[in-house]
Amino acid sequence: MKFGHFDDEAREYVIETPLTPYPWINYLGSEDFFSLVSHTAGGYTFYKDAKMRRLTRYRYNDIPTDSGGRYFFIKDGDDVWTSSWLPMKKDLDFFETRHGMGYTRITGERGGLRVSTLYFVPLGETAEVQKVTITNTSDTVKTFSLFSYLEFCLWNAQDDQTNYQRNLSIGEVEVDGSAIYHKTEYRERRDHYAVYGVNAEIAGFDTDRETFVGLYETLAEAKVPHAGASANSIASGWYPIGSHQVDSTLQPGESRDLVFVLGYVENNAENGEEKWADDAKQVINKTRAQALLARLSTTEAADAAFDALGVYWTDLLSAYTVTSPDDKLNRMVNIWNQYQCMVTFNMSRSASYFETGIGRGMGFRDSTQDILGFVHLIPDRARERILDIAATQLPDGSAYHQYQPLTKRGNNELGSGFNDDPAWLIIGVDAYLKETGDYTILDEVVPFDNNDALAETLYTHLTRSFEFTLNNLGPHGLPLIGRADWNDCLNLNCFSTTPGESFQTTENQAGGVAESTFIAAQFVLAAGQYATIAERGGDTVQADKARTAAAGMSEALLTHGWDGDWFLRAYDFYGNKVGTSEDTEGQIWIEPQGFAVLAGVGVEHNADGTPVQTSPAFRALDSVDRLLGSDHGLVLQYPAYRSYRIELGEVSTYPPGYKENGGIFCHNNPWVIIGETVLGRGAKAFDHYRKIAPAYREEISEVHRTEPYVYAQMIAGKEAVRHGEAKNSWLTGTAAWNFVTVSQYLLGVRTDYDGLVVDPQIGPDVAEFTVTRRARGATYVITVANSGRDGSRASLEVDGVAIEGRTVPYAPAGATVQVRATL
Ligand code: GLC
Ligand code: GLC
What is the mean predicted confidence (pLDDT) over 393-397? Predict the structure, then answer.
């Protein structure tokens, strides 16, 4: 069942009913000011940091779901309703929400009034615009009032939910003309405040929640809109809100625009700005806020800002586009997957409807992988991100597992010891170098442990990453796992017996020899990449060392990491095998199968270059298919654990079929898909891809439940009670890895050091397609005629001339290169 449809021309998902199976959200903002907005106008806004600078309040775990947003109440005669359906839930004659690139438009119509609100954050502004267009669709004159409504958060979102003894006494506001100012704590250490204004004369305002809503009323019963008149309340403590009353009379067919602006403003003493407007230091200096409101005070100004946003996205998304007969493929590649990659760049794992914005910092492993998904869109910011992340690496090559975005410092509470972290840095830098050819990044001097005295070149950081694994090998020559590897829940050294204790940070048992085959596979890939980087920098000694180490690790994996039909997952603390047919549960795990094959481990070739069908790589992926496959994607392991296995850590704490215990983790399915393309099995690869890609799941939205336009971290696995149900949408490494998979391996166009590789492996269902790729200033138009036969590889013609191999040499900036690929 569908609840809307894609409008690809407009780059929008159009939601046709408020009754979606879960709130379907969007993100506004791409610089410093961000908003989450659901299809019924729920969500919240913040400046830079979702925990420390939250402007508006949101209620998690509330009944009904999704309470807290920015709403417009209409009082039309005796009828009171809200145009976003929630919170009043009055029947609407028309409802539609369009989520687009950095904007959302919500339209509700009732009793001859159509109210359409466009929410967006203009480029260069620290503000959310809410442009409301009201149209009289009846054949009589209409006189009515509109009441805006939002609730302020007292800045620190965590404190805001816990410290009521203080917070209920400190709320302060000012009202000046049509602008409402939220200035809690401004009298003391804050130099920032929020403003909520509208470009029209107001008939009244409210800033005190209890006055506007009532104490025992719900938002649907809010007193002021039902009374039809604002009370001009001034909040003093309790719960500050912002509400304007705007009265209108519209002739039949007539429309009126109102531009509401919710802004964040800082008066910066260092820039010579006065904090106060008066000598008594009671009134905020509002100069900056007034300038902000003035910039957006007309419909034309708001429209121009909106148009500029559209141009920004058109330009961004033109770096990689595909035209194929498969609309779902086109919309994933051209629009939504890239859009989600940008959102993960902006948000990391902080703020979504599953992440509260007050929990995690930026992950070392998460952020380095995210780079793979957005480096082609914003290479300069990827460069900056790489250097920020590298500065949190420790001198022995290990890394703080997380760092805080405001301070960019490593998080001491969590510390280090996740032994996959170091190699991701190499993988992220490799992607950057291939995309940009900017080797100067390797010479950048970057601190270790955020300490300038310990600074070394980025190249040295990569060397330490590489050596870290070699310095931390276990009894089988496989890498020690530490607290966990990519799988946060495989905690083989830290046994927790106390309820509520963190599995990852509980004390490691002494003498742990637990080893990870995943890190082994990851090392084979990363060491190979590091060898290339070293060689190009003239360091042949390190290059040789790395190649030898990669070959040795590959050997160790095939010898000690092989179970007979697939790769083992680990050796535990006691040296016992994890992920073996000898066990009754958790016999096979997905991570090492996909990653080993994508790194080339166990791929043997015949004399004519074709892969040997009986080689370990084929057997591993055939086992994956047979044992991990399901209608909704590949589960993480099988059979799931049914009882608590203390020696494995968090993994078996999840009920069977959920999360890391047999859930479909959409982040690691791509590794298998890439593996299939390495083996030349495009049809199988594309099949796996379609199972989890949201656009292909749109038809089963009632099962999938989360947004049909973005990936979720997890879909419940085949042993789950609710197989096929997704959770944790938006902020997941799934976005980056699926974009890598579809753009670089299925469609097969990827940047390499000396040219653009064209090597599609998508099977027969997409017989022809054209990819347009902008890389290093040139544009490549690649037309593919695809038999889709397993094992066939592309022959290339570049500007009409056949070439050897599958790498198109880079052309000078400004050039357009025509490539024909036939397979
Ligand atoms: C979450 C984490 C990620 C981890 C994965 C598997 O998505 O953000 O770092 O790799 O879970 O446990
Ligand atoms: C839990 C989750 C995992 C996530 C981690 C983040 O272990 O299962 O997916 O990566 O928490 O701390």
Answer: 97
Query: Which residue has a Cα nearest atom 4 of ligand 2?
Result: 488
| Ligand 1 atom 10 nearest Cα | 486
Single-letter amino acid code for the residue at 395: P
Give me ligand 1 centre to Cα 487, in Å: 6
- Ligand 2 atom with least separation from CA of 660: 8
Which positions ≥6 away from 532 have C-beta within 8 Å?
Answer: 430, 543, 753
Query: What radius of gyration, in Å, describes the C-alpha atoms of the chain?
Result: 28
Nearest to 601 by CA among 621, 628, 582: 621
pLDDT value at 507 more than 80: no
pLDDT attached to residue 505: 81
Question: Which residue is catalytic, options 49, 208, 370, 488?
Answer: 488
Three-state DSSP at 325 gives coil
Which residue puts its alpha carbon closest to atom 12 of ligand 2?
488
Tokens 């992926």 belong to 621
Residue 508: its pLDDT value, please? 74
H-helix or E-strand spanning residue 620: helix 616-623
Q: How many CA atoms lie within 13 A of 44 on its CB side?
A: 30
Q: What SS3 state is found at 470?
A: helix
Using DSSP, state whether 20 is helix, strand or coil: coil
Q: Please indicate whether residue 761, judged by its CB atom, sits closer than 6 Å to ligand 1.
A: no
Among candidate residues 790, 805, 668, the one with its CA nearest the CA of residue 741: 668
Read out DSSP for 198-221?
ESS--SEEEEEHHHHH-SS--GGG
Protein residue with its CA nearest to atom 9 in ligand 1: 366
CA of residue 276 relative to chain centroid, distance: 39
- In the structure, what pLDDT confidence band is assigned to residue 411 with cuts at 50, 70 and 90? confident
Task: Give the ligand with the smallest distance to the CA of 369.
Answer: 1
CA of 630 to the centre of ligand 1 (A): 21
Residues 419, 420, 421, 426: what is their CA dihedral angle, to the nearest 10 degrees?
130
802-809, long-range: CB < 8 A, 24+ apart: 806/757, 806/758, 806/759, 807/752, 807/754, 807/755, 807/756, 807/757, 807/758, 808/755, 808/756, 808/757, 808/758, 808/780, 809/754, 809/755
Distance from C-alpha of 277 to C-alpha of 282, rounded to nearest angstrom: 8
363 Cβ closer than 6 Å to some ligand 1 atom: yes
Provide the pLDDT for residue 590. Answer: 98
- CA proximity to 518, closest of 365, 680, 368: 365
Whether residue 420 contacts residue 516, with contact meaning beta carbons closer than 8 Å, is answered with: yes
Query: Is 660's C-beta closer than 6 angstroms to any atom of ligand 1?
Result: yes
- H or E stretch at 713: strand 712-715
Q: Are 27 and 346 in contact (CB under 8 A)?
A: yes
- Mean pLDDT for 474-492 is 97
| 644 burial type by CB count under 10 A (0-12 exposed, 13-18 middle, 19+ buried) | exposed
How many whole angstroms from 650 Cα to the centroid of ligand 2? 9
pLDDT value, residue 405: 76
Active site residue 799: no
Residue 299 parent element (H or E)? helix 299-317
pLDDT of residue 787 exceeding 80 = yes
| pTM to 2 decimal places | 0.97
Whole-number Å distance, alpha carbon 661 to ligand 2 midpoint, is 12
3-class DSSP assignment, residue 503: coil
Ligand 1 atom with the shortest distance to the CA of 484: 12
Q: Is the CB of 820 under 6 A from ligand 1?
A: no
Q: Residues 339-381: pLDDT tens digits?
A: 999 999 999 999 999 999 998 778 999 999 999 999 999 999 9
Tens digit of each residue's pLDDT (9 = 90 or more) over 281-323: 999 999 999 999 999 999 999 999 999 999 999 999 999 999 9
